[in-house]
Specification:
71% of the residues lie in helices and 0% in strands. By secondary structure, it is mainly α. It has one domain. Helix 3 runs parallel beside helix 7, helix 7 packs antiparallel against helix 9 and helix 7 runs parallel beside helix 11.
């Protein structure tokens, strides 16, 4: 039964109308900017160009994909008034939530990684020569689960959760990493950048701000991994407990 729930959630998140916008975004926007990034960063080496494109586009797209897909894990069921049928399945609630979260996070990680491949192909004019791509895919995968855990919890706690999630993805994750002092530690993106260990994008403060690199990031790769793993486990356990002990009813104002 758990496998069926997982596969159903995977198929739901891989529907054409859900996947094609992100593939289009990567194939047109990310690839297009990556191929012409030297215009914005003249004289920069390939590593710096890729770091800028990845930080500005790919990691922000990751947060955006997760905000849109993960926040609907349960909210869509509530708004479509199918939550009652979902909860009648002979599966513990925590398993129901966890396997849907797992499926959604894996899809988000795959879509973000494809965007990273587009960025790499555009800068390096091929699929070889980029020593940062594997690190980025690892960071994006961790980020998919971290954002997923956070947005899933927001979806459990709030109606119209997508608005809150989008504000976090666009506003918080862009502004907070650029803040001085220890404020940047309150951003998921800060830890993902620590895992990726991108080279400096140069002295251009505009690019640094768009890359969320104005703030000081002295976090090591291992600390980034440990912090995110603890963050994911705590939020998933808390969310599973909340979903198990509270009632979720169809929304009458959803139409």
């Amino acid at each position: 039964m758990e496998g069926a729930i997982f596969m159903q959630a995977v198929r739901e998140n891989l529907r054409f109308r859900r996947v094609i916008p992100w593939l289009f975004l990567g194939g047109v926007v990310v690839l297009g900017f990556a191929m012409n990034w030297e215009t914005f960063q003249p004289g920069a080496d390939k590593e710096s160009q890729y770091a800028a494109v990845s930080s500005i586009f790919v990691f922000h797209i990751l947060a955006l994909i997760s905000a849109i897909l993960t926040s609907t894990i349960l909210n869509q069921e509530v708004e479509n008034k199918t939550i009652v049928y979902l909860l009648t399945r002979p599966v513990p609630r925590w398993k129901l939530l966890f396997f849907r979260y797992l499926a959604c996070s894996l899809v988000v990680a795959a879509l973000a990684s494809i965007n990273a491949v587009f960025a790499s192909a555009g800068v390096y004019h091929g699929l070889s020569g980029n020593s940062f791509l594997i690190k980025d895919i690892a960071a994006l995968t961790v980020g998919a689960f971290a954002y997923g855990a956070f947005f899933m919890l927001i979806g459990l706690l709030f109606n119209r959760a997508m608005i809150v999630c989008l504000l976090f993805a666009f506003g918080w994750e862009t502004a907070v990493p650029n803040m001085p002092g220890q404020m940047s530690y309150l951003s998921i993106n800060t830890y993902l950048q620590a895992i990726a260990q991108h080279p400096s994008t140069g002295s251009n403060k505009g690019l640094a701000a768009l890359s969320a690199a104005l703030g000081e990031n002295s976090i090591s790769t291992s600390t980034g991994y440990i912090t995110m793993i603890v963050f994911i486990v705590v939020l998933v356990v808390f969310g599973a407990g909340w979903f198990t002990h509270f009632e979720f009813l169809p929304r009458e104002d959803a139409e």
